[in-house]
Each structure stands twice: as C-alpha cells, then as structure tokens.
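Sample pair:
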Amino acid sequence: MVQTGFHRRDEPEEQDRLVAWAEDVGLLRMRERRRGPAPGRHTGSGVVRGGYEPCLLALLRVAVSEDPGRGFPGRGFPTWLLESLARTGHLAQAAELAYATGGRTGPGDTLLALVEAAAHAGDLRGAQALAESIPERDAHDRALVALVPAWARSGERGRAVALAERVRYPHHWGRAWATLAKAEADRGDMAAALECAARADESASMAGGVASPDVLALLVEVAVVAGDAAWAAELADRMQSPAAPIGYDRRGGGLHPLARVLACEALQGDLRRIDALLTSPEESADADVDLPRTDGPDPAREDPEPDPDRFTHLLPDPSSGPLVDARVMADLVHAVAESADHDLALALADRAEGLLDTGAARHSHDLLEAVILLLAGRGHHLRAMALADRFDEPSLRSARQARIVREVARHGDVDRAEYLARAISDRPAAVVALLGVVHELARRGLLDRAQELAGSFTDAWDRDEALTAVVHGLARQGSMSRAESLASSIVHRAARARALASLVELSPPPRARRLAAQAVVLDGWAAVLDVLEPIVPRAAATVADQLGRRAPEHVSC
C-alpha cells in the first residue's frame, strides 16, 4: 500500500525516541546532576499507604506548594499542562487558563492546540464547542479545519462535510477539503477521497488563485493512493509552476510539500522529477530516466563494493545550478528513509552527494546529516563516517559519528555499533554513542548484555542513564520487581525519578500510584504528571488548581 503521509524521522515515534533524546543528553546530564543524589534510605515508598488515589493527589498539592515553578521555563501556564487538562476531561478549565494567560498575542494558537488535543482524546463535541467559541475569525477557521478530518475518522462524514462548508475564509477552503480527502483515503473510501480532493482543487480556483503547496502535496498523496497516477502527475507539475512557487514557510514544522510529492513518486520508482530539479533547465528538458529495478546488493552485507558506473548517467552535472533547495532534498531523504528499498536509498544518496558537491547547496548541513543517517541505516557506515568528516567543526563531526553509531544499532547491528562507538576519539560523543547502544539493546530485550554494558560506565550519571533504559526494558518484559530493584540503585535523584516514571506507564494502577508517589518525593510534581493521565485523570487539574491559588510570580492568572 502506498503511503499517504510522511513525517520527519526525528519526530518522537517509538523507533525515533532515542534520536530525540540524544540531542539533549548534555542538557539532561547537567540538569540532573544539579538536582543531586537521591536520599540514601528514604525513597518515598511509605508515602502512599496502599496506593490510594486521594493520597497521591494530596502529595501533588504538597509538591506544587513547595516548588510551584518546577517544570515552568517562563511565565504563564505551559501549553503541555493545558493540553493535559484537555485530554483528561477538563477542557473548559484549560480554555479559561489559556484566555487568562494568553498575553498580548492572544490565546489563538493555544486554543487551537487544545481543540486538537481534545479531539485526539475523543472529545469531539467539546473540541467543536471550544472551536465555535474562538472569537478571532482566522483562528476560528483553523480550528474548524483541524476538526474536519477528526470527524471523518470517527465515521461522521456528514458532520465533517458540513463543517468544511462552514469555513469562512477562502484561503482555508482548500486545506479543509484536502484534509477531508486524506482522511477518507486513510479510511479506504477512495471514491469519497477523490470527490473531496476534486472539491479542494475547485475551492482553490474559486478563491481566486491556485492551491497552496501543502494542499497540493496532500492532493498528490490522495491521488497516488487512489491510483490516479495521471492526476497526481498533473498536480505535481502545478506545484512547480510559476503560480505555485516551491517556497514554504517551515515554522509550522513537518516536511516540505515538494519533498512529500517527490517521495510519493520516488517510492513508485520514478525519479524523473527530482532529476529534472537537480539539473539545469536545459538538461532537465532532455532528462527521461527511470530508477533501475534490480535486486541490488544484500543490505545486510557490510559496506558492499559499489559499482562506480552504476548511477553515473543519473547524476546532475556539477557545473549546473541545481533548482532544488538542499532542505527539500533533506526532507525527501527523511521521508523515504524507512520505506525505500536498498537501491532507491543508494540512488537518493548518490543524488544528494551530487547536490552537495555542486557547492551551491544552502543549508547543506541538513542534507549532509540526512544522507549520513540514510547510509548508516543501510549498512554503509564507512561511507557515512566519511561524509561526517565533511563537518569542519570537531564537535559537529563527533556528534554525527555518535548518530551513525545509534543508527547502526537501531537497524540491528549492535556489535558493530559498539565497536564504532568505542572507536570515536571524542569522549563525550563516544559516551552518547554507547548510551545509544544500551538503549537499543534494552529495546530489543537483550537486557543482561545491556546491564553489563551499563555497568561499564565510569561516570555516575552516564551509568544512571544507561540503567534507566534497562529498567524500562525489564518492565516491558514484565519483570517489575527486578526493574524496581534496579531503579533503586540509580544514584541521581532526577534520573531515579525518571526511571520510576517509566515504570508507572507499564504497571497496574495500585502499583503505578505507589511508584508515582516515590517519583514525586524524589523530584517533584513535574517528574510524573505526563504519565498520570490513565490512572489519575484529576492530576493535571489538581496541579492547575494549586498553581492558580498560589498565583506565583511566573504564572500570570
């Protein structure tokens, strides 16, 4: 089945959490060392007798009273706390706090986040009521657009259509219908998806212009999954037209729309458009190449010898000025990294290196890192290491070497990953790489080996971080007693609290409340709030109420 949506690989999905964690490991180490060691004898085990919920709520109130600023980087209630309220049935309270602490810019973006959080939690009626109450018209429209696919995914297609028809401003019409089309495609109703996609295309024309790049990208994805290759190609052509420039505001995150379109085509074996963009206009007029469909080398074989002439005729001329931005190419590599076969991955890596070699690629570091991770995950770690040497700054170079190690481990070759980690000359980077190996060993259930490697760290916090991964792995296997015992050996108070919090998610409610109480005693209320929703839905409301009553300086209620 053709993929209908793409995400950056550094988003916090299960397989990518390690990557997101490792980027902040230095800050995490500094912050948790500052919190100091855990108490030698008292770990809070006797605080909650029997694990009753009211006792845990009372403990949260005390913790907030003692340290109200814990978890607040600045003024006002953080959005994550308000979203937690919205997810646990306290949407009205979250909205009131958003209005009270919105500041000069107003609560528009925060309210939109609350609408999405409530909808994701299944409270579609509450989310719509909040959307209808937003006074600012553009924010009101954006909230309605966000709810259109949510209603469709719930099976309420009629309500979703009615909501799309109520969007006020023309510049939102295309996105409303395009997201509805994608929701229908995800549900498997291709006829409805194509109907809504055509409505999205028509709405853009009625609005007096052409569809925006992100809308065109959505329509291409729908057309591809619905099997309408001709329309998909037409939409992709329109994205490159002068009336629809490929520039994109990246502040909202996600992949560049053109990269999503190119990914749809690449995963079908069609690289003609990217080849045209990577060459001069004169050369692209004559370009008509297809991706060779061969079995290719065994991806498990370590650094297979490449054929030097294999892709020569497909690469751009280094003397020509490429028409595609390096960030678009980087997003393309990210989009297909997990789905591409071995030949496609290498073909894109060759093209990316060709773009880098032109010297005309702005933001080349983004593309360089994307290619490094792609090659490392495909068994070409030597080639990836050679590309990492392109980083002039030693700290950047060693950081990328650590990421290569983690990528090699994530794709299953933990022995080679450990060898590569120990070969990194920069000690902090080598430690980060070895921590990544421990996390991957624990994720794969190789817990004895992970614990043995964790014990080899000489620094106390590094050892604590490694043991946290082992604790979580033991809990996933059901060895809760052993996991708790190992957590109690963690030296730093904040690291031990994190380990206990990871057990909360995997424990039955009574045990989870007891573990959460220990974590609160160790490191305050912010250590566990995000894992309490399933067992103590009133936890976020209790914290918000206590903060509101105290009205500390950093909370402008």
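DSSP finds 29 helices and no strands in the chain.
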